[in-house]
Each structure stands twice: as C-alpha cells, then as structure tokens.
Design a protein that fits this description.
The complex is a heterodimer of chains A (278) and B (292). Chain A has 13 helices and no strands. Chain A has helices spanning 2-36, 58-63, 66-99, 103-115, 120-133, 140-165, 168-176, 181-192, 194-210, 213-218, 227-238, 242-262, 264-277. In chain A, helix 4 (103-115) packs across helix 6. In chain B, 73% of the residues lie in helices and 1% in strands. Chain B has a two-stranded antiparallel ribbon. The longest helix of chain B is centred in the first third of the chain and has 33 residues, at 62-94. The radius of gyration of chain B is 24 Å and the shape is globular. Classes of the chains: A mainly alpha (278), B mainly alpha (292). Chains A and B meet through helix 1, helix 3, helix 4, helix 5 and helix 6 of A and helix 1, helix 4, helix 5, helix 6 and helix 7 of B.
Chain lengths: 278, 292
C-alpha cells in the first residue's frame, strides 16, 4: 500500500519537474512565436497578452526583405562551403591520425585538441591583419578560411572518435587487396563513416551558421554581412517593430533547427562519443 | 607495416590541416603576444614599440580590474548554474518520465538556437515595457512597473548570466545524460537492494561514479564560457558602465571599436594566460580520467 503511494507521489513529483523544465526551455520560444504573429497595429500591453488577438503572417513577409535575402544567401554560401571543406579535411586528417604509426602523431593530435579551446577574441587581431594584408576583408573567402580553421579541430576530434570505434580489421582487410590506399579510403572508409560525417556536418553547420565575432569584424558592407550580423544590425533599425525582428529571428533559426531534428540521432551519438568517451 | 603509398596519402591528408591550423590558430596566438608590445590607435595607425608600457597601463587601470571581476562573476555564475541545471535535467530525463524521448529532443532547442537570436530574444524578454519577465512579475504582484534589468548596473550581470545559462545548459544535459546511461547498472541495483533511496543512490553511487566526467565538463564549460562573446555583446555591449564587460567584449571594443590593436592584444594576452591555466587543469583531469 504505502509503497505504491510513495511511487505514485514520486512519479507525480517527476512529472511536475518535467513540466517546469519544459516551461523554462519553451516559454521564450513561445513568446518569440507569439510576437512574430502579432499584427503591427495590435499594441503591446503590460502585463503582456500571451497570444495575439488576430494572428497574422504579415511580419514574416515583411521580414523577408531584400537585405535579409542577401544575408541569407551569404550565410548559405559561407556555411555550406565551410561544412564541405571542414568535414572533408576533418575525415582525411582523422583517418591519417588513426592509421599513421609515428611518435609525432600523438603530439599533433594533442595540438589539434588544444586548438579547440583557443579564445577567438584573443586571436582575431592577427587574423584580421593577415586578411587585410591579403585584401580579403569583405570577401566570402576570409570567412570560409576562418570558419574552417576554427571548426576543423572539433571535426577531427569527433571523426577520430568515430573512426576509432570502427572495427580495425575492416580497415586493415580492405587495404590488403590490391586497391590503392586512396581507393581503400574512398570506397571503404568514407561509406563506413557516413553517420559520423553527418554528425560532424550538423555540428559544423550549427557553429558556422551562428558565428558572429569573425563575421562582425571581417565584413563591413551590407552586401557581405551574414545573418547573425545582419540581425544584430536590425536591432537599431527596427525601432519598436519587434514583430518583424522576431519573425526574422525565426527565419534565421529555422534551417539549423530543422537540420538538428532531422539528424538528431546521429548528432547526439557522434558528439557524445567524441566528448565523453574520447 | 605502412606502405610507402599509404604514407604518402596520409601526408597529403594531414598537410592542409597542419598548414591551416598553424597559420590561422597557432601563428595568431604568437601574433597577439607580439602585438601586445606595440602601440597603435586610430589616429596613429602605425604601430610603435612600447615594451611593457601597455601592460603597466592596463594592470593599473580600473577598467582591467572591472573586466577581471566581471569575467570571474560571469564565468562562475554561468558554469555553476549550467552544470547544476544540466545535471538535474539529465537525472530527470534519465528517469522513466512520460514523453521522455520528445523532451530529450526539445531540451536541446536553446543550444541549437543561434547565439545572436538567443540574445535578441532575451533582450526582448527583459524589455521594461514589452518583456515577458516584467509582465509575469507584475501579474504576480512582485513589481508595480517594469524594471530595465539590462540597464541597471546591479541587475545587468545576473540578467546576462541567466540568459547564457538558458542558452548553454542543454550541452551539459547532453553530456550528463550520455554519462548516466553508461553508469554501472549492477552497482545501482546493488544499492537498491540494500534499500538505498533515490537520494542515497545519487549521493553514494551516481555522483562518485561520474566524478571525473563532472570535473572534465566543469572545466570545459568554464573555457567555453570565458570565451563566449555573442550573448554579452548583443545584450549589453559590456554596459551599463562596464558592469558586464568581460575579456572578449573588451578586446573587441578596444580592437574594432577604437582600433587600439595593441591594448586589445594586451587584454588578449591576459585572457590567454587565464585559459592556459584552465587548459592545463583540463588536460590533467582528462589524462587522470583515462588512466583510471
């Protein structure tokens, strides 16, 4: 009797805690959605109305204006280039780290791991000067180079954790027949690494899509701004047009949130393999 | 036996990485140290050698003390709360609660949200006229009218910390949840047979079992938080009156707001020193974890 009572009370307590956690996580999102659906002529009141009287999508169509489209395209170009290069180089390097038998390798691996923790604000000035010297300020290339450099260490780390879990005999056996090492890599290692590659791609996309500091420092014209910087510029311009600002924020977040949910399973497995067990 | 062709391939695979990381991560570390000995400004853009002049100037300044104190408050606050909340939510989502799978996915949302979006959202949450937080507090009768949380020197830092905790705690949830799933079932069941209640199991089995992962994760989140720029910059730009200026925002403001690259780099060197300490701690903890 008392045992079932206790377990029922415990269960109720857990559900209550779960609801509190859900409220803490989701209320800001709910508020963002609510404000983005509020018609421009419906006044804000305090205390606030939780849901607009006549929800409308007007804010979304006005948020999708020409500058926003430019920023979106810029982000898309920079992020997709970074994802492809960083994941590609990441797998190549992770493979080299797994296969090479050199004393130097573990030292190199340590340097890669260390580089994950570098403070971007403390290294940005020399990078800025290099980019300025090479005439690369306000170009996609400057951002792509910077983003590949800062995401590559993590990409290598995740993929190395992933490759280390593959049965080694599979890699060995494939290299025994007469296929050259590159064909072995291409036809055996790359297909086997697919889940790891997807996890890494999502990670690199999340990091790159939101990167703010480099984009803010290396671009100065509207034509080259990426979404996070463009959004930050909007704050002043919008004045009190919060509906449009929230609609823009949702449009900026949608692609990464979608990518995360589609590939969530791979992502969580890949990240924790690298971070927890690595 | 590594064949010559394989060795050649591995060399080609590694070379671009070594080149990139060397040029754009390691060289700039050295570059910042060199830069910190040179003085330049917007009016006087040609750097002149200054020796330790900027170090003396900064070490004796009130700005530096404020940035240091703020950085400590910010980092300790965010790391402590993120880890507590992350651990608590991981325990909860490890228990058999209804809708667990969905909650495990939803809880990640703030972490996936771009930093600038999260910051803009919280600017809005804190808004004295339109914000949800003030609305709640007024409805509850705690406040009579909206407070400008981000504009008051005494509330700005807690407000910024709270927003950063919301944004970043899911990472801790993810790590701790994965760790909890790896915990020794047998030990847990043995403790249960001994009649240990939930709290006893937590204190005597779960926490000791995860001691090392907790230590590693605390140091890792400390490093990430100490370096985090977006939230503070978008919420307050270091204000009001320096109340939320931390190393990254101060460096950015000096470097790209005032073009005082030398002074910005001196701040950069101090932040590198703090991080070097943390990274050493991290490496020591990690290697002791791998040995055990």
């Amino acid at each position: 009797m008392s045992r079932t009572w206790r377990s029922r009370r415990r269960r109720l307590g857990l559900v209550a805690l779960e609801l509190m956690l859900a409220a803490f996580v989701l209320l800001p999102f709910f508020w963002m959605l609510s404000v983005s659906l509020k018609p421009a002529d419906e006044p804000f009141s305090i205390p606030a109305r939780l849901w607009p009287k006549a929800p409308t999508l007007d804010n979304f169509s006005s948020a999708f204006r020409p500058e926003f489209r430019t920023y979106f395209v810029n982000s898309l170009i920079v992020s997709s280039a970074t994802v492809v290069i960083s994941v590609g180089l990441g797998l190549a390097s992770a493979y080299a780290f797994t296969r090479a038998k050199l004393a130097l390798i573990s030292a190199l691996m340590g340097l890669v791991a260390l580089a994950q923790m570098f403070p971007h604000s403390a290294i940005i000035i020399p990078i800025y000067k290099m980019m300025r010297g090479a005439g690369l300020l306000d170009t996609y290339l400057a951002l792509i180079i910077a983003y590949v450099s800062v995401t590559l260490p993590v990409a290598i780390w995740i993929l190395h954790g992933f490759l280390a879990k593959l049965p080694y005999s599979l890699l060995e056996a494939a290299s025994l027949d007469n296929a050259g090492p590159f064909r072995t890599f291409w036809h055996i290692v790359v297909p086997l690494s697919r889940p790891g590659l997807l996890a890494t791609a999502v990670y690199v996309l999340i990091v790159t899509w939101q990167e703010f500091l480099f984009a803010l420092s290396f671009t100065s014209t509207k034509e080259m701004r990426t979404l996070p910087v463009g959004l930050n510029d909007f704050i002043g311009q919008y004045g009190i047009r919060y509906g449009e600002l929230m609609a823009s924020s949702i449009l900026v977040s949608a692609p990464v949130i979608a990518a995360f949910f589609l590939l969530q399973r791979h992502f969580v497995a890949g990240l924790t393999a690298g971070a927890v067990k690595g | 036996m590594t064949s010559r062709r394989l060795r050649w391939l591995l060399f080609v695979f590694l070379a671009p990485t070594v080149l990139l990381l060397g040029t754009f991560l390691y060289y700039p570390m050295v570059g910042t140290v060199i830069e910190s000995f040179y003085k330049s400004s917007f009016i006087n853009p040609n750097p002149t050698f200054a020796g330790f002049e900027q170090y003396r100037k900064i070490l004796g300044s009130r700005d530096f003390r404020e940035v240091l104190v703020n950085s400590v408050a910010w980092t300790v606050g965010v790391v402590a709360l993120q880890n507590l909340l992350g651990f608590g939510s991981a325990l909860l989502l490890n228990a058999k609660v209804p809708g667990r799978g969905l909650m495990r996915a939803l809880v990640m949302l703030p972490w996936v949200l771009p930093g600038v979006v999260a910051a803009i959202l919280w600017r809005f949450m804190y808004d004295p006229q339109l914000g949800l937080i003030n609305s709640f507090l007024i409805r509850l009768g705690v406040l009579d009218e909206g407070t400008a949380w981000l504009a008051d020197t005494s509330t700005a830092m807690p407000a910024v910390v709270f927003a950063a905790v919301w944004k970043g705690f899911p990472f801790c949830t993810l790590i701790y949840l994965a760790a909890l799933q790896n915990i020794d079932r047998e030990q847990l069941e043995a403790a249960m047979l001994d009649g240990a209640r939930a709290f006893g199991r937590l204190v005597h089995v779960v926490i000791p079992g995860l001691r090392e992962i907790i230590a590693v994760n605390v140091v890792l989140t400390t490093i990430l938080t100490f370096n985090y720029f977006d939230m503070v910059w978008v919420l307050t730009r270091g204000g009001p009156k320096n109340a939320t200026h931390i190393f990254p925002t101060r460096i950015f403001e000096l470097g790209f707001g005032q073009f005082r690259f030398g002074e910005a780099s001196t701040y950069g060197v101090f932040s590198i020193l703090v991080l070097a300490l943390l990274v050493t701690l991290y490496v020591l903890l990690r290697s002791s974890r791998q040995r055990s």
